Amino acid sequence: MIDQVLIPLLKIVIVLNATLVAVTYMVLLERKVIAWAQSRLGPMRVGPYGVLQPIADAIKLMIKEDITPVRADKWVFTAAPIISMVPALIVYAVIPFGPTINLFGRRVSLYITDINVGLLYIVSVASVGVYGIILAGYSSNSKYPLLASLRASAQLISYEVAVTLTLVSVILMAGSLSMVEIVNAQYNQHVWFVFAQPFAFAMVLIGGLAETNRAPFDLPEAEQELTGGFHTEYSGMRFALFFLAEYANMIVVSSVVTTLFLGGWLPPFPNVGALHFLYYVPSWAWFLIKSFLFLYLFIWIRATLPRYRYDQLMRLGWKVLIPLAILNLVVTGIVKVMLL
Amino acid sequence: METQTVHHGAMFDTDELVLNMGPQHPSTHGVLRVVLRLDGEKVVDCDVVIGYLHRGIEKLSENRNWTQIVLLTDRMDYVAAATSNVGYCETVEKLMQLEVPRRARYVRTILCELQRIASHCLWVGTHAMDIGAMTVFLYAFRERELILDLFEEFCGARLTYNSMRIGGLPLDIPPGWAKKVLEFCTIMEGKIGEYEELLTHNRIWLERTKGIGVISGPEATGLGLCGPALRGSGVARDVRKDEPYAAYEEMQFDVPIGTNGDTYDRYLVRMEEFRQSLRIIRQATEGIPEGPIVGKVPRLIKPAAGETYHAIESPKGELGYFIVSDGKSTNPYRFRVRPPSFCNLQGLRRLVRGHLVADVVALIGSIDIVLGEVDR
Question: CA angle at residue A213 from B142 to A330, to 5 degrees?
């Protein structure tokens, strides 16, 4: 009973809450890091160094008037943010924050579940999120959101292909779709896949940026062109859901990249005896540190780079990333067959 | 705006989409309204609608005396107010054939060039911001702040300076000001490199600006483009060189020109103008002569009947004033401005045709307009 229901339930509650807190603090982190990059201070007023800013933001968004445009398709308009938010959250079910450990005399795994199609589950669930954006743009019955949602769907579909193809080469390396098994494979093969698959790593990172609509691929939002893009007509909490979904997706992408390429919860060079003292740091801490590095990188990129144009973005996806992904897959396959 | 059917073959005909950009839009630099006719994301045609900031400055000026008009010119190009002041004062001086002391002309040159840097800072910031590079914006504003501080010390204001008088300057430069200007030049020198590091060789920036809005030299001249927008197309027209005013004939500087006439060349031209401006400021500040700051100006300014046109090189291009005096009243009979932003904006329609929505904002940034000047 405890093992079957209570512990999983507890884990779900913890992960869900931790995610939502992390997402709100991501917003603060982003504002702070970008501010530092731009020689500003960032939020400083709410709490010391602005640490309570996310709470103030949340209160503001909740008490704001929730406007539905008269000519909007009301049901779809309401459903869109939810469709966008839910997939971003349920993806966390298969992300391994750590291995199975002993906790209060019980064997507890530091992930909600480990299914044997973990990676496939992530890819397919995450791609449902795009419907939220498309429907938001369509139901707003307004021109800017419509243009943005067309951009978003084109972008997400084309980058989905590139990223998934690249992921296949990682699966070839690990021999499993299970997230936990992929980490174990990196331990058993004595190498993080970032060293074995550097191209795949770079491509997943770029594709991940594009899939989460982050700069320099933030075309569907492009404030300067489309005045906020697909969420132009949204306000209050519904707008906040889109916002949170974007950041939740960012965390998903960095967690997935960490798991696939940086050995998940493993410390650096897990098989080197001289570095075994690194195991004193808890496994989940390693996972969080590595994921944080990627989140920081995403923010850093946003502060630095200009935005791609729609056609250039598609060209990069179809003419560069997809052929490279296929090439990488073929080479990985050949090497794999030759070595075994 | 009338839409037409776009023919892709009988079955796939689509309708054009009319998209209204502005007057409330983050990238139209104020209250410009652009009505776009789109085929997908491609711009088929556009209509530029102006007038949202019209205050009737030209007509107002006909009911103000000659000295009061200086302050109205502040409100035209409000990011380069000192340049507008200088242009107006010189036009009246030309009309009255007044001699301006050399010291005043030097200070005017320094102010004009500082203003050019301030205006270009705002341009590079907003232009980069439109293309998505937001850090440059704050870097550029950081340096613009230094210039505003210098202006504040000189005349007490930070935006609308009212910093000129007919025949010279209202005040002499404060003690130690020249040294601060030179210090600023040293700081700015390094900061330009910072902007360039973020943009000039950035691949995304190159892809976004190269080959966008290409216009040839003769065509640009034909459309009446001026300033960096014209020089980007390879036409070396600069009023500072061609018809020197203030103390420009005593200054050594180059006029940078582009080759391809695209957005990137216009960007490069302005980046080089930063450096040339610093060069001019250094020369003028180091060589500033002693002497009076106001020439022999009659107590009551009342030019004899006549008319004159005088142009200066504002940061945006050729800023011309056409003034008619009837010789009887203390007001101008007719006051007319040739604003560079307005003339450059004429080119927008030609530039955006065939490009994408994202390029429209890049091009609005590229021709560097200020709506206060367009509408007056």
Answer: 125
CATH topology of domain B57-375: Cytochrome-c3 Hydrogenase; chain B (1.10.645)
A226-279 pLDDT, tens digit each = 776 777 778 888 888 888 888 888 888 888 888 888 887 888 877 777 777 777
Q: Cα angle at B32 between B135 and B120, to 5 degrees?
A: 40
Question: Mutate which of B42, B134, B138, B141 to disrupt the A interface (most A C-beta within 10 Å)?
Answer: B134
Query: Is there a contact between B357 and A226 if contact means CB atoms under 8 Å apart?
Result: yes
What is the rounded CA–CA span in Å between residue A97 and residue A279? 15
A226 contacts in B (CB within 8 Å)? Answer: 357
CA A119, A124, A128: angle at the middle one, nearest 5? 145
Amino acid at B42: K
CB proximity A288 to B under 8 Å: no
Task: Report the C-alpha gap between B289 and B72 in whole angstroms.
Answer: 30
Report the residue of chain B nearest A145, measured CA to CA. Answer: B19
Residues in chain A within 8 Å Cβ distance of B19 = 143-144, 147
Q: How far is it between the farthest Cα atoms of chain A? A: 67
Cis peptide bond prior to B23, omega within 30° of 0 = yes
Nearest alpha-carbon partner for B369 in B138, B84, B76: B76
B60 SS3 class: helix
Q: Give the best residue of A146, A153, A305, A310 to mutate against chain B (max B CB count within 10 A).
A: A305
- H or E element: which one contains A65? none
The two tokens of residue A307 are 């935005």
CA pair distance B206, B201, nearest whole angstrom: 7
**How many C-beta neighbours within 10 Å does residue A292 have?**
16
Structural tokens at position B18: 């009319």
| Every domain of chain B and the residues it spans | 5-49, 57-375
Check if the beta carbon of residue A262 is closer than 8 Å to that of residue A290: yes
Burial group, residue B7, by CB count within 10 angstroms (0-12, 13-18, 19+)? exposed
Output the pTM of the full model: 0.84
HSE-CB for A132 with a 13 A CA cutoff: 27
A216 CB neighbours in chain B (<8 A) are 132, 204
Domain range list for chain A: 66-339
Q: Using the predicted structure, report yes or no on whether residue B7 has a pLDDT greater than 70.
A: no
Per residue in A280-306, pLDDT (tens digit) is 778 788 888 888 898 899 888 888 888
Name the 3-class secondary structure at A109. Answer: strand
Q: How far is B84 from chain A (nearest CA, A)?
A: 29
CA distance A26 to chain B (A): 19
Looking only at Cα atoms, what is the longest distance across chain B? 79
The C-alpha R_g of chain B, in whole angstroms, comes to 21
* CB–CB contact B131 A307 (8 Å): yes
Q: How far is CA A118 from CA A74, A207, A236, A256, B243, in A?
A: 35, 19, 34, 11, 73
**Which of B126, B135, B187 to substitute to test the interface with A, most A CBs within 10 Å?**
B135
Å between A225 CA and nearest CA of chain B: 6
Enumerate the residues of chain B whose CB falls inside 8 A of the CB of residue A303. Answer: 134-135
Interface predicted TM-score (ipTM) of this complex, two decimals: 0.80
DSSP code at position A41: -
Buried b (16+ CB within 10 A) or exposed e, B175-191: eebbebbeebbeebeeb
Quick check: A26 and A18 in contact, CB under 8 A? no
A224–B17 CB contact, under 8 Å:
no
Q: How distant is the Cα of B138 from the closest Cα of chain A, in angstroms?
A: 6
CA distance A170 to chain B (A): 29
Average pLDDT, chain A: 83
